[in-house]
Write a structure and sequence with these properties.
Radius of gyration: 20 Å
CATH class of the largest domain: Alpha Beta
Number of domains: 2
Distance between the termini: 63 Å
Helix content: 40-55%
Strand order of the largest sheet: 5-4-3-6-7
CATH superfamily of the largest domain: HUPs
Number of helices: 11
Shape: globular
CATH topology of the largest domain: Rossmann fold
Number of strands: 9
CATH architecture of the largest domain: 3-Layer(aba) Sandwich
Largest sheet: 5 strands, parallel
Length: 310
Amino acid sequence: MAPCSRCGGPPFFTRKYSGETLCAKCFRESIVEKTRQTTSRYHMLSRGEKVAVAVSGGKDSLSLLRVLSELNVESRNELFAISVDEGVAGYREEALANTKSLCSDMGLQHTVVSYKDLFGFTLDQALDWKDEREVSSCSFCGVFRRRAIDEAAAKVGASVVATAHNLDDYVQTFMMNLMHGDVSRLAWLDPNYRDSSFPVRRVKPFMEIYEEEIALFAYQSAIPFQSVSCPYMHEGLRTEVRDFLNSLEAGHPGMKNVLLRSSLDVISRYSRVQEKEVVPCSSCGNPSSSGLCNVCRMKAKIEQQLNYRG
């Protein structure tokens, strides 16, 4: 392997899509710098803002917390870590412990909210009637998770939530929306999109970085890897899309980057013509595109099933 393209040091990683070889130090600096460029390019964070980092406890979100903390020397934002305990037995405990430990080391406040406290049931309880649903567990959970993140962000008084969605996540979501025919949701992927149905603005500082590189950054930074995967993660279409894109990238390095640029171009053109009327939910009062928000609609179905089963 050739020496580092930047400093001539011993090689650590080669970006096949660019041909650039980096030493360990330059690789780490490149991840931090790319994150800084992304947040600047899309005006994600303003100096002095209260930023809540949504931390699941996995490698991506813990890496984001570490990187934003390093960038915070310049931006002087007030950082908080927020986590959601969905109530998945044998899964979330380890992740929350990892997050608590890292936050303690970094001197950051860590706030946890749970489905049980917010909605009256755990995810395991909600998905107990799995065979009677037509939506995947991930889609189902996502509705409640987004609301829980809003609640946690409100608790710490944050004006923006940073999530650890990476380039792979972004492209996968774009492809899935097309496959499901959810064209109206493409506007949500615009990095500059402002959705009034979300009380707190969302940003994705890792959206231009490959998942593989974030995993390597986490390993290099001694960030703990969660040993247990979510038991519901393989139910949806995303796993198949992920495998397909990984295969495509292996044969054609840089293809994910091409798809990212193409999706951003399509999304920017589409989002400019989208106008969505937002009204208060008739049940909880949160912003909704209809009379009853998705959270209240799904919550009512779950409560009906739980009451029926006694």
